[in-house]
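Project standup — Tuesday

K.O.: blocked on the structure for the chain from last sprint. Re-posting the sequence here as requested.
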Amino acid sequence: QRQVVESGGGLVQPGGSLRLSCESSIFTLDDYAIGWFRQAPGKEREGVACLASRDQRTFYMDSVKGRFTFSGDSDKNTVYLQMSSLKPEDTAVYYCAAEPFPTSCWGPYDTWGQGTQVTVSS
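H.V.: unblocked you, prediction finished:
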């Protein structure tokens, strides 16, 4: 069983930064995908960023390109999403998802974290 545990959300002013963490044993595999998704109140869930280990590639939705960046810590079995220059429009519950042997970097995903709230407000 491969659980996903995410954390790092909080309240930050516009222009500030947060780092989200996603911990999972799936990172011991050679082929996996990690996706970050978010859902704002009253809106549909949207894909924010994903990482495909097989091709060592990352992808970002257009509105976060240049502001959000993946990183990793193999010793802690954790990947991070560094979020900078945050905007009020980034306010949402952020979810980490993990998938072994993915068909696509963007999903489908079987295993999801519980979500962490990111609030960008002055």
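K.O.: great, moving the ticket to review. The chain has a mean pLDDT of 94. The first strand starts at residue 4 and ends at 7.
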